[in-house]
Amino acid sequence: MKKQVAVLSTLFLAMGAQAQEVAVAATAGDSSKGLYAIAAGLCMGVAVLGGALAQAKAASAALEGISRNPAADGKIFTPMLIGLAFIESLVLFAFALAFLLKP
Question: Rounded to whole angstroms, how far apart are CA atoms 33 and 77?
Answer without folding.
Answer: 45
